[in-house]
Amino acid sequence: xxxxxxxxxxxxxxxxxxxxxxxxxxxxxxxxxxxxxxxxxxxxxxxxxxxxxxxxxxxxxxxxxxxxxxxxxxxxxxxxxxxxxxxxxxxxxxxxxxxxxxxxxxxxxxxxxxxxxxxxxxxxxxxxxxxxxxxxxxxxxxxxxxxxxxxxxxxxxxxxxxxxxxxxxxxxxxxxxxxxxxxxxxxxxxxxxxxxxxxxxxxxxxxxxxxxxxxxxxxxxxxxxxxxxxxxxxxxxxxxxxxxxxxxxxxxxxxxxxxxxxxxxxxxxxxxxxxxxxxxxxxxxxxxxxxxxxxxxxxxxxxxxxxxxxxxxxxxxxxxxxxxxxxxxxxxxxxxxxxxxxxxxxxxxxxxxxxxxxxxxxxxxxxxxxxxxxxxxxxxxxxxxxxxxxxxxxxxxxxxx
Length: 401
Prior knowledge:
Radius of gyration: 21 Å
Largest sheet: 8 strands, mixed
Strand content: 25-35%
Shape: globular
Structural class: alpha+beta
Helix content: 25-40%
Number of helices: 10
């Protein structure tokens, strides 16, 4: 039997960051990552937009606000020290009409409360930052927003983990809990402490340990359309003022790590957890479970989910996506955005009781295991700072026991 002092389920960016933090704190301890795929980061982490968020969207008392600013700094340092691609492009949040002014004011208030650099700019100043930007009278500028290559970041984090003596066992799918051991497709693993960072499957694994009983994960598919134009056609990312009542930021223009532009994303409800295309990854039991979650959201009177879902499904049209992006910048034509990027699936946590989307990070655990139930955007940005919190939570639980 393989044994380990700390076993992390899931080799995405959060799992890798947690493993690195645990190894740093407990240098003599054995740390193992089990990953069901052939390599790390093949799901949400590797399919991430690559945006390093600055931290002005989140309530000051949230875990997201607590970790995003430091996570942004740490991820930039990680990329710079290892000469990984990093584009310090910045972000404009533009107003489409006076109706958006209250939203801009709220974002500015949150940014100030979170200690984030955020500048209010005029329409003329916005065009100096990004000549193609469209805004009504005013906008906000975030100079600390940047973009990276998520595949490269995850691969380097995995390599760094192995250099530090962390074992990564790929092709090892978690199957069940067996007392103090874990049954996997690669055999049984004896573990002193288990960290569940399994993303789309975090809720199911948590239930094996008696946690996450009040929640279920409902997956949403995100798609971007890539521009056929030359890199550098946009200088900065351009975002609309979001509806802060839901966790999605709306269609925006992203400048990638190499200067390429893309528009999106969608947030289309999936019928099973890894519904990337066609019947890939189909599971009847998963479809039943996810379907029950979607049905609950549809029946809920307080979420506005029907309106949200209908709007997201319409975005699967190139023309609709381009039309929404054209409100943010000049010269956006559907004919210039023909290539759909690799789909990513957001593991969105939903409370069973009130059928509401969980907006913040969510963890549950005890002296034997910790379960990261909700680690959606900006988890990629937060990962290094969030991992320190995860390690402290483990330390507090094991010390108390």
